[in-house]
Design brief:
8-stranded parallel beta barrel; 23 strands; 17% strand
Length: 747
C-alpha cells in the first residue's frame, strides 16, 4: 500500500480517536464519526446502521441522507444492499446501486441521488453489529485501498460499540451486555440452577484500538508472535512422537503460527493506525466470517486453528485471562462454545451448571454433566457473545433455556421453581432405602449409570441397587494417549471397591460416532453413528479389547464381574467378542491370576436387528441391556444429534412399545435377564410404562432414581398396562396422553 495512503489512514484513525474521546453523548459521537469519515474519504454520504434486534437494522447516523430518516429507516437482515452486507458478512461495492441485485429504495432517505454504494460489515469476532456505508453521486466503484480503510474504521467502530461508546436512546443504541437476554437451546441434562457466568474462554476486551506509534505496536506484535511460536514448538516437542496424527495436527498449527501472510496483514493494519491487539482481532473477525461461510470440513477446521491462535496471541498482548481460575465465583455457571470431557473434569464438581453454544446430547461432556447431576443446555446460540464473566444467569434444564441477566420477575418465578424441586428431593430422600415396589407387588430394580470413580458415592445416596452401566470410554477420552492395562485395572478395582459389593456392569470401550479418541486415526465417515464404532472397533483392534478385558479380570480379583459389549448387531459379533473374553481368561489362568468368582457376559441391544437374532443368541448371552438412546434413533431413523427430527419421535409410540414387547418376550422365553438403560429409564412416566411392559431392571442417572421410585410405589402396573392396551386398541399413535391423563387421578 502506498505510503501516502497509509498516512491518510493513520490521519483518519487519529481524527476518529479524537471524536470518540470527546465528552459527548453516544448519538453526538456517532454523528461526529460519520461526518469525519465522509470528509476524510471525500464522499457525499456516510451512514452507520446498527442492529436493534437480531433481524432488524436501523439507520443510527448519517451525513448526506435526510436527517429525518435517522432512527426511522429500518430494514430486515438481507433486505436491500445494507441488509445484504450484514447477512453475507462481506463488502458490497457497486458503481450502480439501483441496478444491483437486492437494491431497495428508501424514499425517506433521499438516497436516489447517489449512484455508487460501498457497504462494509461492522463486525467483531464474527458477530455483525451493523453496517458502515459510503455513497457518492459519481458512478464508480471504491478502490481496494478505500475499502481497506473502511474495514479498519469499521473494526474500530465495532470495538467502541462493544465498549459502549454509542449508548443512547432506542434499542439500536442500547448498552450491550446489560439487558436481559433469553437464550434457547437443547436439553442435555435436566435440572434448574442459578449462579454467575464463568467463561471457559473469557473474551479479551480491547480498550486501545487506535495507536499513533506504529513502530512500538509493531515491536509488541513481533514479540508476542515469537512467544506464540515458541509455545507451539514446545507443544510439538512434548507430543507423542509415535502418534503421527497428533503430530500432523500440531504441524498444521505451527504452519499457521509461522504464516508470513498472516503476520504481514497484521503488520499492515498496525502501520495504518491500529494497535497490535486491534490488528489481531481484525484478522480474527475476518477468519470467523470466512469460517461461517466455509462448507468444507477441512477448511473450517483450519480456520478454527487460526481462530485459536488469534485468541492465544490476544492473551499474550493484553495479559488477560492469564489466571482466570482465581476469579471463579462461588456458584459458577460454566459458559463455553464447546468443551471436552478432560477440560470439564479439570473444573470438578464446583461447577453448578453448564451452557454451551455448541455440543451434542451424546457427547462425553454431556455424560460428565449427567454424572454430576448438573443442568446442561447445549446449542444455545449467542451465549458466548452475550455473556460476560460475573453476569447473573438462570439455567432451566427442563425447558432448555437460560435467562441471562434476568429481571426480578423472572428471578422470583425461577426461585419458586427451585424451591419446589428442593422439597421434592426431600420427599425422595425419605424413601431412599425402600424398594421400588408397586401396589401390585412387583419390585423393580433401579440402578444407576456411571462413568467416573467420582460417581460412585451417588450409589448409596441415590438409593440405586447397583450400577447398570459403567461407561469405560471416559478414561480413554480424557487423555492424549492409550491408557496402560495396569492403570485401567487399578481404576476398575477402585470402582468395584467403591460399589461395596453391589453389582457393576462394565461396558467395554464404546468409541466412534461422536466419541473420538485424539490419538486414534480418524475416519471420515458420512454417517459415523452407523459406521466404525463400539464393538466393531474392538473386534478390528483385538489388542485393545483384550487389554481392557484383562484389566477387568484383574480388577475383579476373585469378586463377581459383569461385562457387556456395546452395539452388538448380530450373533457372530457377540460370539467373536465372547471368544476374546475366553482368550483373556485363559491367559489370566496361565499367569496364575485370580479369576472372578462369577462372570456375566452380556450384550447391549441398540439396533433392531439384534431383536431378531437366532434363539441361540438369547441362550448364550448372560444378560441383555437395551440401550434406549441408540435404539430409538435407529428404530425411527432419526439422528439423536439432529434437533429437527429427534424430538419428533416418542419413546411411548405404540410401534416402539410393540417392538420392546417383542424383545421382552424373547428374553422371558430364554430366561435371559433384561434391563433398560438410557435417558428414558430415568423419566418417571416412561419408566412406569417400561415397567408395565415387563422390564424389571432400569438403569438411569443417580438423580432420577428418587422420582422414578416415588411414582412406581404409588401405582398398580396392571392398571397401567390396561390403560396402555386401551390406547393401542383405540388406534392412538402414542400412549403418552392416555397414561398422563390416568395418572392425574391416581397420584
Amino acid at each position: 500500500m502506498p505510503h501516502r495512503l497509509e498516512t491518510e489512514s493513520r490521519k483518519l484513525l487519529g481524527r476518529l480517536r479524537e471524536a470518540l474521546a470527546a465528552d459527548n453523548e453516544g448519538q453526538a459521537r456517532l454523528d461526529a464519526v460519520v461526518d469525519l469519515i465522509a470528509d476524510s474519504m471525500g464522499t457525499e454520504v456516510c451512514s452507520i446502521y446498527l442492529f436493534r434486534d437480531a433481524e432488524t437494522l436501523e439507520l443510527c447516523a448519517t451525513k448526506g441522507l435526510q436527517a429525518e430518516a435517522v432512527h426511522q429507516t429500518r430494514m430486515r437482515l438481507g433486505e436491500g444492499l445494507v441488509g445484504r452486507t450484514a447477512k453475507t458478512r462481506s463488502v458490497v461495492n457497486t458503481a450502480d446501486a439501483p441496478a444491483s441485485k437486492g437494491f431497495r429504495y428508501m424514499p425517506e432517505t433521499g438516497e436516489e441521488r447517489f449512484s455508487s454504494f460501498c457497504g462494509v460489515p461492522i463486525q467483531r469476532l464474527g458477530e455483525v453489529l451493523g453496517v458502515l456505508v459510503v455513497q457518492s453521486k459519481d458512478a464508480r466503484e471504491y478502490t481496494t485501498d478505500e475499502v481497506y480503510a473502511l474495514e479498519i474504521v469499521a473494526m474500530v467502530i465495532a470495538e467502541m460499540t462493544e465498549l459502549g461508546a454509542f449508548v443512547g436512546e432506542g434499542a439500536a443504541l442500547s448498552a450491550r451486555h446489560q439487558q436481559p437476554v433469553l437464550l434457547r437451546g437443547s436439553i442435555a441434562q435436566e435440572g434448574a440452577t442459578e449462579g454467575l457466568v464463568y467463561l471457559h474462554e473469557p473474551r479479551v476486551v480491547i480498550t486501545n484500538p487506535i495507536s499513533d506509534d506504529p513502530e512500538t505496536e509493531s515491536a509488541r506484535l513481533h514479540e508476542a508472535i515469537e512467544q506464540l511460536r515458541a509455545g507451539v514448538d514446545d507443544m510439538l516437542v512434548g507430543a507423542n512422537t509415535a502418534d503421527n496424527d497428533q503430530k500432523q495436527v500440531l504441524e498444521a498449527y505451527r504452519m499457521f503460527a509461522n504464516s508470513s501472510s498472516w503476520l504481514r496483514r497484521m503488520q499492515e493494519d498496525v502501520q495504518n493506525g491500529l494497535s497490535a491487539e486491534a490488528a489481531v482481532e481484525k484478522e480474527q473477525s475476518l477468519a470467523r466470517a470466512r469460517m461461517s461461510r466455509a462448507t468444507d470440513a477441512y477448511l473450517r477446521e483450519r480456520l478454527h486453528d487460526l481462530d485459536d491462535l488469534s485468541n492465544k496471541l490476544l492473551r499474550l498482548l493484553t495479559g488477560q485471562g492469564a489466571d482466570a481460575r482465581a476469579d471463579m465465583p462461588d456458584n459458577p455457571i460454566l459458559v463455553a462454545r464447546n468443551i471436552g470431557p478432560g477440560e470439564l473434569l479439570e473444573y470438578g464438581k464446583k461447577i453448578k451448571g453448564i451452557v454451551l453454544e455448541e455440543g451434542s446430547v451424546g457427547s462425553h461432556a454431556t455424560i460428565v454433566a449427567r454424572a454430576w447431576a448438573i443442568p446442561l443446555i447445549i446449542n444455545a446460540k449467542g451465549v458466548t457473545r452475550e455473556a460476560l464473566n460475573g453476569d447473573p444467569i438462570l439455567v432451566d434444564g427442563e425447558q432448555g433455556i437460560a435467562h441471562l441477566r434476568p429481571d426480578e420477575t423472572v428471578h422470583a418465578a425461577f426461585r419458586d421453581k427451585i424451591e419446589m424441586q428442593t422439597r421434592a428431593q426431600e420427599r425422595y430422600a425419605s424413601i431412599r432405602d425402600l424398594p421400588a415396589e408397586t401396589k401390585c407387588g412387583e419390585v423393580i430394580s433401579l440402578q444407576m449409570n456411571a462413568g467416573l470413580i467420582a460417581d460412585l458415592p451417588s450409589l448409596e445416596g441415590s438409593g440405586a441397587e447397583g450400577v447398570g452401566l459403567f461407561r469405560t470410554e471416559l478414561q480413554f477420552l480424557i487423555r492424549n494417549q492409550m491408557p496402560r492395562r495396569a492403570e485401567l485395572s487399578a481404576l476398575y478395582s477402585r470402582v468395584l471397591n467403591a460399589a461395596g459389593g453391589k453389582r457393576v456392569a462394565f461396558r467395554t470401550l464404546d468409541i466412534g460416532s461422536d466419541k473420538v479418541l485424539t490419538y486414534m486415526k480418524p475416519n471420515d465417515e458420512p454417517n459415523p453413528a452407523m459406521g466404525w464404532r463400539a464393538i466393531r472397533v474392538g473386534l478390528d483392534k483385538p489388542g485393545v479389547l483384550r487389554m481392557q478385558l484383562q484389566a477387568l479380570l484383574r480388577a475383579a480379583n476373585g469378586q463377581p464381574l459383569a461385562v457387556m459389549f456395546p452395539f452388538i448387531t448380530q450373533i457372530s459379533e457377540f460370539r467373536a467378542a465372547r471368544a476374546e473374553m475366553d482368550k483373556a481368561i485363559a491367559r489370566e489362568t496361565k499367569l496364575g491370576h485370580a479369576l472372578p468368582v462369577s462372570l456375566e457376559v452380556g450384550a447391549m441391544l441398540e439396533t433392531p436387528s439384534l431383536a431378531y437374532a437366532p434363539d441361540a443368541f438369547f441362550e448364550e448371552v448372560d444378560f441383555v441391556s437395551v440401550g434406549g438412546n441408540d435404539l430409538k434413533q435407529f428404530f425411527f431413523a432419526a439422528d439423536r444429534e439432529n434437533e429437527r427430527v429427534r424430538k419428533r419421535y416418542d419413546t411411548l409410540d405404540c410401534s416402539f412399545l410393540s417392538f420392546l414387547s417383542h424383545v421382552i418376550k424373547r428374553c422371558e422365553t430364554s430366561g435371559t435377564p433384561l434391563s433398560f438403560c438410557g435417558e428414558d429409564a430415568g423419566r418417571p412416566v416412561e419408566a412406569l410404562c417400561l415397567a408395565a411392559l415387563g422390564v424389571r431392571t432400569l438403569s438411569m442417572r443417580p438423580a432420577s432414581v428418587g422420582p422414578v421410585k416415588h411414582l412406581l410405589r404409588r401405582v398398580d402396573l396392571n392398571e397401567v398396562r390396561k390403560v396402555m392396551d386401551d390406547a393401542i386398541a383405540d388406534g392412538n399413535q402414542s400412549v403418552r396422553r392416555a397414561v398422563a391423563d390416568w395418572l392425574v387421578y391416581q397420584v
